[in-house]
Amino acid sequence: MATRAAGTRITGSPRAAGGKVKRPLAKLRNIPALPTRSTFLSKRYVNSQQLSTAHPRAHIIVHFQQAVSVLRIHDGSEIQGGSTSAVVYFTQEYEDGPVSIKGEIIGLGFEPNVERGWHIHESGDLSNGCASAGLHFNPEGKNHGAPDDDERHVGDLGNLQIDENGDAYIDNEVINDKISLNGRKSVIGRTLVIHLGTDDLGKGGQADSLTVGASGGRLACGIIGAIPNS
Ligand SMILES: [Cu+2]
Ligand SMILES: [Zn+2]
């Protein structure tokens, strides 16, 4: 087998010199790889012409979108935790693309070294604190589940790993292809909620396992707001 020239993709084109590509799938084989995770979050990359040529879908729809949720402890209508730094960003590079979640949850007073359920709840209503954020965002009418399950709510993010200081850091660890920042599955205007208990991912066999993963009460929450493209 001939050695490939540097930069040639493994799925090389079958095109002969001057010849016509006959196989209908040949075009698909020429799709370059998706941007890496590090370039994924780079607005500079996304806004450049590079993207339109790098990904054919993006060529049609360049739809870079970001959203943010600032979480606070809500006790009824009273908001606490003004000195916390609990901010979570959502980024979607193109319509129907994966959503990258990145952020830090500091100072909310979690026990160290535990897992705490977190979900996107359907309502952006915090008039009665986190309690009025409604059920898990579930536009497909499914049961509660794990993020990797087919049977899951769109808003099911599983558990947040709390570290030895009672904080949590999300560094693009969750690439969630179920939620979106546009369309029917858009989480913008809905609420990110972190619970007092661990999410059993629908498998605990408790009365509320298939609805809320037996995650317990709601400690903190924040509405997910849109960040306009600049
Ligand atoms: Cu929840
Ligand atoms: Zn759920």
TrEMBL record:
Pfam families: Sod_Cu. Residues 86-224 form the Superoxide dismutase copper/zinc binding domain. CDD domains: Cu-Zn_Superoxide_Dismutase (cd00305). One of its GO terms (biological process) is superoxide metabolic process. GO terms for molecular function: copper ion binding. Residues 1-21 are annotated as: Disordered. This is Superoxide dismutase copper/zinc binding domain-containing protein. It comes from Coprinopsis marcescibilis (Agaric fungus).
